[in-house]
Structures are given as C-alpha cells and as structure tokens.
Batch of 2 targets.
Target 1
Amino acid sequence: MSFETIDTNVKALWRFDYDSNIKPLRDLYEVAKKEQWNAALDIPWHIETDPSQIGDMSAPNAEPYDFVKALPKEKQIEFAKRRSAHLLSNFLHGEQGAMMICGQLVEVVPDMDGKLYASTQVIDEARHVEVFHRYISRLDRIYPIMPGLKALLNAVLTADLWQMKCIGMQVIAESIAMGSFKTMLAITHDEVFKKILQLTSQDEARHVSYGLIYMKDAIPKMNEPDRDRLEDFAFTAMTLLATTPQMEGGRSTDPFEQIYLELGIDPQKATSEIISRMMDPEAVRAQPNPFRDYAYPQLERVGVITDRTRAKYREVGLAA
Amino acid sequence: MPHRFEVVEDDCTGCGLCSERAPENLEIPAGFSIAEVFKQPETSTEEEACLEASEYCPAGALLAHTKDLSPADPAQSGGQASFVPAGESTPAGIGSEDWRNDT
Ligand code: SF4
Ligand SMILES: [Fe+2]
Ligand SMILES: [Fe+2]
C-alpha cells in the first residue's frame, strides 16, 4: 500500500438558490453530460500495442538524442516505451490530483452552475485515471511523481482562495495537459494511445473552458490584496512545475536515471546532452512548450498577468 | 444576416460550448477537435444564437464579423479581413452581468 496524506484548507459553501446564474457554465454542464464516455468500453483495448508504434516522447519536433541513436533498434524502442510510461505516470498522478481538486471545487465555488459543472469533471478525471493506469500497465510500470508536479498539486490542494484552485488547476494544469496531449498525439502511431489522447483532450478542453469562463467573471470582482495574491500564486504555480529541480531525498536526480541504467545508457552522457540542448535557445524555441504556448496565453486572457507580474514570466522564459 | 462567423483554429480548444448554444450552425465534426461553422446563420434566431456563442466562447475563438468587411468581399474591405469577436464588439460579453443572473 502506497499513500501519503496532506492537510487541506477547504471552506465548503452551500447555495440555497438553485436557479442557473452563469449561463455559459450551465451550457458547459450540458455539454459535459452529453460527452461522457466509458473508459472500459470506448477505447479499443482489444488492439494490441506494438511498442515500435508508441513513438519517442523525449524529443518532440527535434532529432532524437545522440545517446538514443547510439542504441540498437530494439533498445531505442524500449527506451521510447519506458520514457512514455514515465511521462504518462506523471499524467496519471496529475489526473488523480485533478480528481481531488475538482472534488474541492464542488465544495468551495460560490455558484450552483460552478458546482454542477465541477461535479462532472470529477468523473471525467476518474476516467482519465482509469485509462492512463490501464495503458501504462501495457508499457512498463508506474514511475513516481516528479517533485515539481507534486509541489504544484499540493499548492493547489492547500490554497485558501477558491480562485487559486481554479487558476492552478483549470487554467494552468489543464492547459498544460491539453498542450502535452496534442504533442503526444502528433508523435504516436499506436491506435489505442491515439484514442485515449483524443477522448481525454476533448474532456480537458471543457476543463480549460470552465476555468476561463469562471475566472473572467470572478477576477474583476476580487479585492486588490486577494487579486495580488492570486497573481503571485499563478506565477509560483507556473514556476513550480516548470523549473523545480528534481530533488529526491535531499539530492538532485535526473528523473530518467533509472531508465538509463536499466538500458545500459550512461546517465552522465545522457544528462549532459539533454542539458546542452536545453541551453541552446534555438532548440528551446523549436520544442513545444505547453507552459509558454498554452498556459501563459490563457493566464493573459483571464487577466491574471498584469504589469506587476509580466516581467517575472519573461525572466524565466515562460512568457509567450 | 449582417454577421458572418468564423472559428480561429489556433485558439479553439474544442470545448463544444458554441455548438451547444448554436447547434443549427456550429459543430465539432466527428473525429475533429475544433469547432466548425457548418452553416452561416440564415434566420435572426440563428444569428442571435451564434452571436451569443461568440460572446460565450472562452477562448475568443469564434469571431463575428460584419459582412461588408468579409474577406469574401475584398473589394469593400480593400482585401483586408477585419474580424471582430462579438465579445469585444459587445462589451457585455463574458465576465459581464449580461449572462449572469445575479451580481
Ligand atoms: S466555444 Fe470557442 S473554444 Fe469552445 S469549441 Fe466553440 S469556438 Fe472552440
Ligand atoms: Fe484529466
Ligand atoms: Fe482535466
């Protein structure tokens, strides 16, 4: 049994007037009810996954790394399989976090339409946990959650303002998920994985829309100190996920070290090649970056990036 | 009808909110992940629904533009398309009390 607990800070809010009060959110609730699917029945699980069709998620829009190209063909495929399992494990953990955070949203948001819609998202996220878990078990094992993702999800789970939960989960995390699923969809040729990504992205699109609609409505009504706190929270949430070093037991680790060692790849060689690509501004620009390309523009759209905070995003390379 | 509607593909998330509001004109075609205007509005009821869908669109991806500025009429627009999201041309768009029943 593997679990841990965290104390959260949730103030549940009852509404006793049940009429719809935010029309687009009520419409979105209707869409969500119609678009439900069944993870057990609507994915073609009968199709076997050919490992050579999964695709290498380690270098989207770029040449494979030299340390990967140097491997014999079967090991390259094995690397791609394990690398995908690692990535999807983190999406799996993220989906669990989303499911719990959405449960909180049902309690904390102040509008009935907001509560009704969020309740549909809880089952969406449950479905995502189910599909990713089932697919990863075809590839490899479940890898541990990356520290930056855990820090973000815990920050959202423990945030005191409901707007922080909404920005952190619905606008930032959901936009990043959508952007990443798009990238993966362009890489993979596995029919099962493709179907998972298509159906999941369709749900995530609603999740982002919920955040955008609700935040455009709520942010202008916030008092200034809370608004400042929300703006700072958004920046922290973005940097936690994008830039937190991989710390495990007090030492910095490469998240893929385990995979390198198992496949006979020299971890130092691999890490230094990855780092040198990360230092090359042209390579960085060419790589899809869901923070810069998806989350940042949505934060701008809802007005949570202001003159006070804009420069900070630029400094860390997260501005579009 | 005075407006033509267009989906900006790069901005559309495919959430389906617009096709819920204006099902006679907008849809997310099967197998696609973005909305499409499959028919421009032909009645004022359809046009109102599309305008409302444009106001609701959280991503600002459903644009309403007046026909005389349409790219289909390049002579009148000088070849320059001018797209105006309804949510912007109508300040009572998303985030206003226009679609909120309380304050
Ligand atoms: S409401 Fe906007 S974002 Fe959603 S599907 Fe329609 S055009 Fe796309
Ligand atoms: Fe999800
Ligand atoms: Fe989601």
Target 2
Amino acid sequence: MVGWLQIQLSLKMNVMDKVLPQQMESNWPEWFEHLKASWPSQAYSSESTQLNIQPECEAWLAEHQSDEIYRIVWINGVLNVSCSSWPVLNELDQVITTLPSYCMRSNEQTAWLKAYLEERSGWVQWLPNRAESLLNISDGICIDLLRPLDRPLHLIHWVDESIPSNHMTLQHMIRLGEGVSLDLCQWSVGSNPVSAEFNVDSHICLAEKAHLNISTIQQLPEGVTLRGLETMCLDAHAQCQATYWGMGASCFEQHTDIRLRGLHSHYALRELIDLNGTQCQHHHVHVHHQAESTDSQQTFCVLGQDRSKGQVLSRVIVDEGAFNIDSKQSARGMLLSPGAQIEVSPELEIYADAVQCQHGASVGALDADALRYLTARGISLDQAQQLLIQALIRNVLPDQPNSKMHALMMKYYEFDEV
Amino acid sequence: MLTLHNVSVNIDDTPILNEFNLEVPQGEVHAIMGPNGSGKSTLSRVLMGDECYQVTQGAIMYQGEDLMALSPEARAHQGLFLGFQYPVAIPGVNNMTFLKTALNAKRKALGQSECDAMSFMQLAESAAQTIGMDLAFLKRDFNTDFSGGEKKRNEILQMLVLEPKLVILDEIDSGLDIDALQAVALGINALRDAGRSFILITHYPRLLELVQPDRVHVMMSGQIVMSGDYTLANTLEEKGYGWLASNTVES
Ligand SMILES: Nc1ncnc2c1ncn2[C@@H]1O[C@H](COP(=O)(O)OP(=O)(O)O)[C@@H](O)[C@H]1O
Ligand SMILES: [Mg+2]
C-alpha cells in the first residue's frame, strides 16, 4: 500500500531531522540507586492506584539489572535515561526511539540510523555480538511523570527484518501524578517481513485529575505475532483519550482492561483496525466502572479485506453501587472482500441502578444502494468505495484535529476536505 | 437525444418492461405518468445502467450512441442525470465533498480541468440560491436526517451543478409542499434550454402545470399506452387510469 511508505518516511524524517545528541546519564548502577532512593519520597503515593506499581517496578528493575535493557524514568521533572546495549535517542526530551542492537547488523534499512547515531556517539553503545546470542529479550520503559510535559512524548518501536526468530517482551509502566497531563504517541512499526513474536505489556496509572492522550499506531510487518496486555487505572477526575490505529502484524491479540475507580473519571477509545491478506486481530476490551459518575465511550471500526479476520469484543462492567454511569459502545465492521471475517460484540454487565449504557454493533459490506447512487453521479466504483470507507473512518479519527495521528490518517486514507 | 426501441427488461426473470418504445428529441420535456408498479422507476434505473435489471432485447440510443455499452459513471459523464425517487442518505460523507467529487469526476472524464474549492463553492451556492435552499444544507452529511422534500431539493441542486444533457426525474414532486414544488420547478425551468431534454416521471398534474412539458406519456404494464400534450395530465386526474384500460389508442 502506498500509505505504508508515507508512514515510514515520516518516521525517518522524524528521527533524522529532529534527533539531537544530548548529555545522558550513562552510569547506570548509580542511576539505579538514584531511582530507588527517589521513589518512596514521591508526592504521588502508589497506594492510590490499584496496580500498586512500585513493588512491581522495583522487582522488575532488580530482575533486569544484569540484562541489556534501557530505561527512561522521569523523576520530579528530570529525565533520566540509562542504556546499556539499547540505543536510546532522545530528541529534546520528546522522541525516544528504541532499536534492538541486533537490528543494526548490515541492514540497509537502518544503516542510515546507525551511521547517524555513531556520528554523534559517545553516548550510544553498540554490543552487536552480545545481541546475537539473545533469543529472549526483555525490554521496557518506565515513565513516572510528576509534572506536566508541554510536548508530546513519542515511543517508537521499530521491528526489522534482521531480527532472528525470537521472542521479545516489552513492559511499559506509566504513571501520571496528580493533575499531570501527557500526550503519548506509541509507534510499533517495521518494514519487511520477519518472523518474530512479541509481548507488550503496558500498565498505566492516572492519579487524580491526570490527563492522558494516548495514540497508538501499529503497523508491524508480516510474520510478526503480537500479544498485548494493557491495564489502566483512573483515579478521581482522571481522563484518558485513547486512539488506536492497527494495520499490521500477522496475528495480533490485545487485551485491554480499564478501571474507572475514581469519581468522575473518564475513558474514551477510538479504534480503527484495518486488515488485509491473512492478518488477524483480536481485541478484548473491558471497561470497569467501579466508581460513581464515571463515563466511557468506545468507538470501533474494523475494515476487513482479502481473507483477514478481525474481532472486537468489548464489555462494559458496572459495579454494584456505581451510580450515574454513562457508557457508550459502538462498533462497525466493514467487509471489503467476500473472504474477510469480522466479529464485533459490545456487551454489558450491569450490577447497578441509574446507569445509562448504550451499545450498538453492525457488520456488513459497503452499502450497495449508496455505491449505485455514487456511480450514477459519475463517481468511479473505486472512488465511491473510498468515500464510504472514509465516512466510517471519520467516526474514529482522533479528537484532536491538530495531532500527528490525525494528519497521518487523513493522508493515508486520502481525505479531501472541501 | 434518446430513443428506446422495443426494449424489454426483466428483474429476476420477471418481465417488467415489454417492448418499450420512446423517443425524446433534443430540447423537449416529456412527462411519464402511470399507475404504481407500471415500470416507471425501472425505466429510469435501466437508463442509468443499474445492473439489477436485465435488458433482454431492444436498443437504447443516446446522442446517436449505444447507451448500453456505457458504464453508469460513463453515462453520467456523457450528461445523463437521474433524480432518484428515493435518494439514499450517506452519513459521514459531506454534501459538498460528494458533489465536488462528482463534478470533478465528470470534468476529468471530459478532459476538462478540475474545479477548485473556491469556484466550486460559488457554483454550489448560486445553485442553492436558485432553488431557495439554505446554505447550511451544503455543509451537512449527504441527505442525512434530511426530510423527504429536502432530499428532493438536494437532487435538483446536484442537477444544477452537474448541468446534464438528459435529465430523468423520478417522482421528484412526491411528498413536496407547495414551496418545495415551486423550487423544484424553478430549478427545472432554469436549466431548460434547446440543447437539453427532460423526462419527468410524476403522478401529479401540478408539476406539469409549472413546467409545461412538450409531451405526456402514460405507461401501463411496462408499455406506453397513450401519449398527448400536457392537457392529458388533467384528463387523467379527472378520469383515473381505469379510463385508459378501454381506451389504449395513441391520441
Ligand atoms: N428490485 C426489484 N426486485 C423485484 N421486483 C421489482 C424490483 N424493482 C421493481 N420491481 C417490480 O417491478 C414492477 C415495476 O416497479 P417500478 O418500476 O418501481 O414501478 P413504478 O415506478 O412505475 O411504480 C413492480 O411490480 C415492482 O414490484
Ligand atoms: Mg417508481
């Protein structure tokens, strides 16, 4: 697809144009001590989150102390970066790109990046020989943000064809302190077919009045199997606006578990799954209304071409005693080829009174009457189909029209606004 | 402009049009009336190239060419326009985006330069003004939550912007209030000229009083059973289609 190239280019541009060398803390045991020392004294108490990530983080850090990993931790507004074998690019505190070092071996696709980094090295270390022997790799990012960040944070996860058959686990922990807002963009992208298996776990905690805008673009190459687990806890008045755009991986299975545990917390998800070939994606989303006056809104759009399979099972659970709940789920599946399969199923599990829950779902082919109408007006069948697909996608475009993701989607689906 | 010669049409092997004949010369307005189910919409759909209908025999010539050889979009490019009896609504597709896409598809096919956003807006706004259509409708999703009459007005708006050569309007006047009916007639009369032909499918003489067609045809069971001038519409209004059953002579 043409659009695929546009994404890659824009990624490269992003990194090439903007990455600047920066001083970084490379003495990592010292940094680790610093991290450990600073955690208990933080203003934001881990007790206010159900996940209680502090012990997990510590255990995780201890466990991985000897591994080749990188970490990015925000402590009281200061970015600390540690990197052993993993190159970490830090673009004015904005873009953090991670590339497994073994991806760098004699690979044309990424050679430019290596050269670019080495030019500015001193802070990037390469351990290519060590990486070759690794078949199980753990990696992850831990972000603990206690002050607002006025710029978006990009996490770019690049998968490359030089990856040997392997199994990789990424674990991300993100915690936003009280009143902190963050724009987080996650990119999981790659180029040529590879055979690889990934697990990506994200645990996110939002303290009171925290605000997270999270957009995820996932376009991994053929041959990649991806399993994702995402948990999120929202305290009182916390908000999360999530946008997900999935176009890739041969097989992708994602479980999302959202817990609205504080009064007036809010979660919104707009998700577009665009599949072709023999790709399959399954997304199970549970949104748990545990506190009063919480609301959630989920909009899914699944496009299936060729012999692809897409499944979205979303469920809203309202706990006993959680009053004044407002929840909406809507899911549309569009079969663009006779061989494609789509299942969308929004469900409700309600144990409380005074709730307002809407759900709707439909799966079908493009409206034949609309296509006939458009062609009768001189619009070619291709263009007519595109108009109808755009009409669907419009429902899941990101809320913020100025966002990068919005612009990319408009370009990829060739929106032409009058 | 348009000639149908012995055209028979089936839907799922059921004959709907039977050796149908019609000639619409350039610059003329012809009305087709007839009871429900007589095949009027079928005729309009066949002319537009709807694949649900099988043409089993006969010939359709449009501007001296075989119409059947053209795809629906090519027919539109060549100046055919069908105002649908039941226009679809397309939520999520902006009215203007749709109309601009249609206009530029036609211009491109005819080797003309594309219409830019500015001049297109002017074109659309002046068309809307001709038929007294609120400009807010231009910004809304195509026909979405439009009333029946608003949808019909929107058909006329498209007709004015696309400037077709042969216009077929299928019950454009059904369900319209008096103002909307006059707006529609205004649109038709605005476009009427020596180079353009119209086929108006209708049940009511009122539109025909406003437009004054050159010929009125009556269709029954897939055939034209009577033709006359526009006074025929009034006769039918008085006497009903039953009167025709015993009176199927060309007048
Ligand atoms: N898609 C279709 N499938 C089956 N029968 C149809 C279809 N469209 C029209 N018909 C039948 O063809 C006949 C003519 O219909 P139509 O052309 O809509 O009549 P009119 O417009 O004159 O009221 C009717 O008997 C109608 O039921
Ligand atoms: Mg009809």
